[in-house]
Amino acid sequence: MDTENCLDSKLLSARREIVTTDQRVTELFETMRESVYRYLVMVFGNPSEAEEITQEAFLRLLLHLQSGRIVDHVRPWIFRVAHNLAVDTQKGRKYESSLDADTWEECYQSRADPDPNPEMRVLQLESFKQLETALAQLSCQQRQCLILRAQGFRYEEIAKILRITASNVAQSLRRGLKKVAELNHE
């Protein structure tokens, strides 16, 4: 009888851990999903694939945690997993190009204020098109570094996500910012 109670207790404890892990990952998904999705859309350009990859990254986090492994820094971990999944998807298609106008417009609409006045809308659209033009002329690595830095990541975190050195991150950011500044002054 004691063995059965012990097994029941262990099973109940294991179920509580799974529920707690599920709830934690759900909370992380709700708070981080949008920024991961936007990163993927801006760097890799396909909104529907970005949504799938975002969900897959959080599913991998759940499975990783449920297997008993620990993630010390969740935000860089999830961005790295999402980035790697997107790169793998890109390798499968051997596709690399800048975003088309419709995709940029969709991205812009997803982050626009609910009711900007017409003047603000024109100014925002003009600024966004200038940024689009400037980002399209950067190397893929420069664009990725700039977007991740804009998301608030530190150099070391960007280096881990992209699997490059921190000095390469600094160099890519410096060159990318210089090129964007030059293009905006033309």
Could you give the topology of this structure?
Elements: H1 2-44, H2 47-66, H3 74-93, H4 101-111, H5 118-136, H6 140-150, H7 155-162, H8 166-185
What's the short version?
The protein is mainly alpha-helical and 186 residues long. It has 8 helices and no strands.
What does this structure look like?
By secondary structure, this protein is mainly alpha-helical. The chain has a domain at 1-95: Rna Polymerase Sigma Factor, Chain: A. The protein is 82% helix and 0% strand. The chain has 8 helices and no strands. It has helices at residues 2-44, 47-66, 74-93, 101-111, 118-136, 140-150, 155-162, 166-185. The chain is globular, with a radius of gyration of 21 Å. The mean pLDDT is 81.
Labels describing this entry:
8 helices; mainly alpha; 186 residues; Rna Polymerase Sigma Factor, Chain: A
